[in-house]
Amino acid sequence: MTDYIIVGSGLAGIAFAETLLQHNKSFIVFDNNSQSSSSIAGGLYNPVILKRFSQVWNANKQLELANSFYAVIEKKLATQFDFKIPIYRKFFSVEEQNNWFTASDKPNLAPFLSTTIVHKKYNGIDSPFGYGEVLHTGYVDTITLLTHYHEYLKSLNLFVSDTFDYTAVKTFDDHIEYQNRKAKHIVFAEGFGMHSNPFFNQLPLDGTKGELFIIRAADLDLDVIINTSVFILPLGDNLFKVGATYNWEDKTNTPTAEGKQELIDRIKEILNCDFEIVEHFAGVRPTVKDRRPLLGTHPKHANLHILNGLGTRGVMLAPTLAKDLYDFIENGKPLDKTIDIKRYAIW
Ligand SMILES: Cc1cc2nc3c(=O)[nH]c(=O)nc-3n(C[C@H](O)[C@H](O)[C@H](O)COP(=O)(O)OP(=O)(O)OC[C@H]3O[C@@H](n4cnc5c(N)ncnc54)[C@H](O)[C@@H]3O)c2cc1C
């Protein structure tokens, strides 16, 4: 009997897998490569919601855990994927500068917003009003993390590249059976793919499509992430990741002409140098109506659990949520009411 089956190996699934490994639990992971959200994500982590000047929910706890969690994996895989690099908010007016200073006075934002306006000149960008620097930021190169982590799981025989067949699940009081396997628990972490899961697809996972580019801009010299209506993230070799769009209607993983035009327009608001589009990606973020994750246990099947709803911030959230779900299942530690699926009376 295996302790766990995990369905999905995006940021959520691998965070749970790593948590299990750290507690010497046995498991197997299924993934069918049907969702692209984690692999194409910008990967930025930023404790401040710059649009509204508010702190990300539970930011301190999430950042602290994410830092140590990814550092442990980097060491284990002997690969760097967590890059600590500042995020600069470009100011377009004196009013924006003033709003920044007002926000940086708030006790919960003060640790994260520098009070010095940066007047650095970057080739390729005009910024007469300067930039505000967000502290404790960076990005996780998600494709590097996922590729290496999947290889690692494969080397341990813990990874199955296959579609999980929900109709083959048999539930019992103290275990489940799936094809020729027995497990104590299943954790479903399928991102937007949850809609195919008959056990949990009543939950209000809206999904928000996002598109992003890799561009080449030989004249752009940038050693920080610029964030305005889109972010521009330097990758080296004159390459930059730029994103992302938000579309609440289209739920496909296909890049569109509209998304392309929107990104081009946004880039032109920031850059005054030439650029060419090298790649164009799309994916659906697993967003929830109330902007809180979906964690918990199926009300009728005590061995079926969900780890979903990471929304727009999977990088920062995944380690904390994996830990919360693990503590809930194994140690009976209650979930915060705001993330527990019990808040939806749908069954
Ligand atoms: C354009 C874009 C930009 C983003 N930028 C950022 C950012 O800068 N910072 C940030 O923190 N977050 C960002 N995000 C959000 C982040 O990507 C998500 O929060 C995160 O990827 C969600 O991870 P997940 O593991 O829950 O879901 P997913 O990444 O969707 O993973 C689900 C996995 O389950 C698998 N699966 C589904 N159904 C089945 C099945 N039946 N059988 C087997 N396998 C199955 C899929 O193949 C997939 O691998 C961005 C997202 C997008 C789309």
UniProtKB/TrEMBL annotation:
Listed A to Z, the keywords are: Oxidoreductase
Where do the FAD dependent oxidoreductase domain residues begin and end? 3-325
Could you tell me the EC number(s) of this protein?
Answer: 1.5.-.-
Annotated coiled-coil positions are none
Q: What class of enzyme is it?
A: oxidoreductase
One Pfam assignment: DAO
Care to name a GO molecular-function term for this sequence? Answer: oxidoreductase activity
* InterPro entries listed in its UniProt record: FAD-dep_OxRdtase, FAD/NAD-bd_sf
Q: State the GO CC annotations.
A: cytoplasm
Name under which the protein is recorded: tRNA 5-methylaminomethyl-2-thiouridine biosynthesis bifunctional protein MnmC
